[in-house]
Amino acid sequence: MRPDARPDAGRSDPAAGRAPTTHAAAADGTAVLFDLDGTLIATRRLYLEAYRRALTPFLGYAPDDPEILALKPRAEIRLLRARVGEHRIAACLEEFYRHYEALHDTLFGGVYPGVHELLETLRAAGVRTGIVTGKSRRAWEITAARSGLGQFDVVILDDDVTAPKPDPEGIRLALARLRADPAHTIYAGDSIADIHAARAAGARPAAALWAKRDDERDGFAARAAAEGAALLETPADLARLLLAP
């Protein structure tokens, strides 16, 4: 996840006022599902600081970035529970949400360049879109109100599943709610766990390379390609992959 993207608030919508056009991809039931953090939005700095401030009173010290990253954060509820225990998770979560919201305006890295345009293109073509994320519902509500990502046809959050990615439960639930054919569904994400979850659900995996730092990109691309994922340098590459004549 890179922290340098900036929110694209207040932007005009070039699709506004136009009648939607049904593309062949929409006609055959194609859907596109996305991971959220590190794929559509940059939240690395926000999460690290919110985790640190939430955990400090429970651990008795402030964990540094390497310690937090070593926990391989994929879902905030699960990460915090693993560090503070079941008996303290409710109080710790309240601290996390308080800091996550208070820090959002200053540490949220924004929507990655090209993502708004990609979503507009897919929606204008009649392609159904969705999110499958390890984010909790409360954190999603805070971010959704500030990101301008628009309406998705389905949103599956950590609250909705019993196991995080790479378990395919979340993607399968999204497919069921959309009544979508996995073979006609792309799942785009920024981690190998995303790629594995997509494959296990029978969906077509795609690697969001635009979200990776320079020191991560080549290694991730090689691993994703070995798993059969489409490699997407920019969000526009996904539109071209799906909607090219």
Walkthrough of the structure:
The chain is 48% helix and 12% strand. With 245 residues, it is an alpha/beta fold. The protein has two domains: 24-42 and 111-243, Rossmann fold (3-Layer(aba) Sandwich), CATH 3.40.50.1000; 44-107. The strands form two sheets. A six-stranded parallel β-sheet has the order 5-4-1-6-7-8, sandwiched between helices. It has a two-stranded antiparallel sheet with strand order 2-3. α9 (192-201) links the parallel β6 and β7. It is globular and about 60 Å long. 39% of the residues are buried.
Number of domains: 2
Oligomeric state: single chain
The CATH architecture of the largest domain: 3-Layer(aba) Sandwich
Q: What is the H/E order?
A: HEEHHHHEHEHEHEHEHEH
Cα-atom Rg, whole angstroms?
Answer: 18 Å
- How many runs of DSSP E, i.e. beta strands? 8
Q: Mean pLDDT score, rounded? A: 90
